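dumping this here so i dont lose it
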């Protein structure tokens, strides 16, 4: 196992319900270190580019509207095997299918308003981290 970094977003449904501390507590109690974090309002362009892989999906337009509907918290999380470990802690995309104890089972409102984003591969983690953070903003 090697220490990895993954990219995380606390989505607008989480900031709206004042859940940023509760979700961060789940990260920290599960051994993640939050090595970078900032609260931002995404522009439409940023949200469109971030989710460009889903451009052809029927939910793309609504997803972009949702992601710019309020502030988000962008983060870098560090842990051994962080990418897969965070996918496991987040739970399934649809909270109806998410396991007990996962963030999405605990907090998500719907398949769209599912509280958190987490990178799905080490390669995408590096791309997503670089999209939002400069090297000097990440303090391990
Ligand atoms: P993930 O966040 O678990 O990796 P993806 O399939 O990459 O899931 O989808 C990105 C985001 O798009 C989801 O987290 C969710 O907010 C939204 N989304 C995914 N599938 C649907 C859907 O069928 N309807 C509405 N929104 C969706
Ligand atoms: Mg995804």
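and the seq i came up w/
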């Amino acid at each position: 196992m090697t220490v990895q970094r993954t990219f995380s977003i606390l989505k607008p449904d989480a900031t709206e319900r004042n859940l940023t501390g509760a979700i961060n507590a789940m990260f920290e109690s599960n051994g993640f270190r939050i090595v970078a974090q900032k609260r931002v309002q995404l522009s439409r362009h940023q949200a469109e580019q971030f989710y460009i892989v889903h451009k052809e999906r029927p939910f793309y337009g609504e997803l972009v509207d949702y992601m710019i509907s309020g502030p988000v918290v962008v983060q870098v999380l560090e842990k051994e095997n962080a990418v897969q470990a965070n996918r496991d802690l987040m739970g399934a995309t649809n909270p109806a299918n998410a396991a007990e104890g996962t963030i999405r089972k605990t907090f998500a409102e719907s398949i769209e308003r599912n509280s958190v984003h987490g990178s799905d591969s080490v390669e995408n983690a590096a791309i997503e981290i670089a999209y939002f953070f400069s090297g000097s903003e990440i303090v391990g």
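The mean pLDDT is 98.
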